[in-house]
Amino acid sequence: MSAPVIPGPHTSEELPPLPHWEQTPSDLKAAIREVKGALRARIAGSGRTVEEVFAVAEERVRVAVSEIVAAKRRGEAVWPTISYADIAAGTVSAEQLDLVRRRGCLVVRGHFERGQALGWDREIVDYVEGNAFFDNYRGPGDDFFGSVGSKPEIYPIYWSPAQMQARQSDRMANVQAFLNGQWKHESEGVQWFDPSRDSLYPDRIRRRPEGADSGGLGTHLDPGTLDLWMTESYQRAFRHLFDGTIEQYDPWDAAHRTAGPQYPGSTMCSAFRTFQGWTALSDMAHDQGVLHTVPIPEAMAYLMLRPLLPDVPDDDMCGVTVNQVFPASEKWHPLLMEALTAIPDVRAGDSVWWHADMIHSVAPVRDQQGWGNVMYIPAAPWCPRNERYAADVRAAFETGSSPSDFPEEHYERTWPDRFQPAQLNETGRRGLGL
């Protein structure tokens, strides 16, 4: 059987141009029809068909899925685990690095001392109880986390001393720099982000008590919605999917991802994250309503090309729309769902990380055994996009407000013991752009 003929590279000027909408289109269905037609024409202009290009993405994914399914069958761990000590000492092995890049996720063992993490957990309880949070809690502020059905499970708290101490700690900065370093951050004469500096993206906490029932969260992604196909910078970021050079697509390439806009919504993230992450504040077993991912970074190519196939209606992007998370489903992505994999057991002080484009979910649980408590802290390196958002973060920090990416709940504005500007160290000041 002869090898497929891959057309030579075209310059972008030779291919049909793409329309783009830098703000949310007023007529979503019309815009979807228009951009899908243009994307198909561009792929055709490269000398390939949509089906041929999708087949390349599908084969890459199929190989990864079969590896993951076989590893599970053999009882092997799918998630890479790396000790914090090896990251700090620079002694992570080449084999471990290769696995992280193949799987796009990892657990950092002993990221913080277990006693430190358990202490932070107690301090958060004292912080919310001391400020009568439960007397004033008004219910979930967004539709997404509201679906878990707990009372509450996600606390809209951002500025506790515990959270800020973790965000600005040397141990967190070391891990974030290590994770950022897995990405290609310089190309085309541009430094797309600074891997050694994080923007201290503030997020919430989760506390799920023993005995809890939780509905979990369905399979989804967080890097954006229709803007991934419709804005100019994302069209450039995913250029290899649409210009006949899919073999060159690299999910670890940050080019054009760190400047562009994102369509606003209640579940958006204004920052560019290399990895999403959380730090465990309790011990958690792998079967107690924990995070699952599809540990295949290349799956993004499959997800981006799938709506262009002829079985998808012309005004539909496989269910992706604005003001909701990007869904991944059995209906449109059954191959990907075969690889959905839980994290291993974790202990308080371990941290869990997954590539920002990765499909993930939280499993439902009934009568949970043990607490399920985490602080959400990602890796969000300093770049133009994150520098702009840092101005909003600074304003929220100074007034104790909810950051602008999140519902306007503002519980902490009057809390006297929230973390104060005078308590920032150098890492904290740099992360807020001070």
Automatic annotation (TrEMBL):
Residue ranges of the region described as Disordered: 1-21
Organism of origin: Winogradskya consettensis
Record-given protein name: DUF1479 domain-containing protein
Pfam families named in the record: Gig2-like
